[in-house]
Amino acid sequence: MKSFRLWGMAALFVALVGGTLWAVWNFDLRWRPHTIAKDEAKVARLLEQAGWVSPGLTGPKLYMVSFRSCPDCLRFKQEQFPDLHAAGVDTRVIEIARRDVNGVAKSTPTERSTVAELWVNRSWRLAQDWDETPIEAWEASGIPPADGDAARSAVVEAGRDLVDELSPLMKKNGVAFAYPLLVWWTQDGKMRACACERRETYKHVRKELGLDG
């Protein structure tokens, strides 16, 4: 009987420790960003040379790879951009028109035209107007069509190539590419990144960019 009680206590202890470790992982560790220690210079160069748009603030840089209809991207913009901008963070948004998959279109003509325009002329105002307009109502008025224009089609393809290049580089550093991909630098100079699809990631991004967490 004594031996049975000891085994029971040991099993309970193991269960409690295991449950605690699981809770720490599930509610905190799994949502933390990763340090980009491999090919950092290449990642930085790809982001800097992309057609990002930003409000032109002078604080820390936060790169965000996004596409227009991405609900997780829109949520991050709506919920976090106001605080980030108030703190001086320069949100550098890189919009992508995704490739078709197995013959299924993942972008529209107006989307491709708008992405090309953003990459070419880098208008933050245009990016804001696009986000604030319902997708089905956006007509890309006054924007040259990308389809049929070799130069603008090449710009659209450059965005897709960026994703192709970033995906394996992120994987090397423990980040599975997803939208929105966020990349930034901490105060001590470390490049950090996360595929921030969930709100649970936001507190870590905020803290590392000098916000309240």
Question: What characteristics describe this protein?
Answer:
single chain, 213 residues, alpha+beta, Glutaredoxin, five-stranded mixed β-sheet, 5 strands, 49% helix, globular
Describe the 3D structure:
With 213 residues, the protein is of the alpha+beta class. It folds into 2 domains: 1-31; 34-208, Glutaredoxin. It contains 7 helices and 5 strands. It has helices at 2-27, 40-49, 71-86, 109-121, 124-132, 150-172, 202-208, and strands spanning 34-35, 61-66, 90-95, 181-185, 191-195. It has a 5-stranded mixed beta sheet, sandwiched between helices. α3 (71-86) links the parallel β2 and β3 (90-95). α4 crosses α6 (150-172). The longest helix is centred in the N-terminal third of the chain and has 26 residues, at 2-27. The radius of gyration is 21 Å and the shape is globular. The N and C termini lie far apart (51 Å).
What is the correct CATH architecture of the largest domain? 3-Layer(aba) Sandwich
Count all strands and give the number.
5
**Mind describing the biggest β-sheet?**
5 strands, mixed
- Helix-strand category: alpha+beta
CATH topology of the largest domain: Glutaredoxin
Outline: globular
Tally of helical segments: 7
Query: Can you tell me the residue ranges where pLDDT is under 50 for at least 5 consecutive residues?
Result: 17-29
CATH class wording of the largest domain: Alpha Beta
Distance between termini? Answer: 51 Å
Strand content: 5-15%
Strand order of the largest sheet: 1-5-4-2-3
**Average pLDDT number:** 90
Q: Cα-atom Rg, whole angstroms?
A: 21 Å
Spell out the helices and strands N to C.
HEHEHEHHHEEH
User: Please, how many domains?
Assistant: 2
Instruction: Write out the CATH superfamily name of the largest domain.
Output: Glutaredoxin
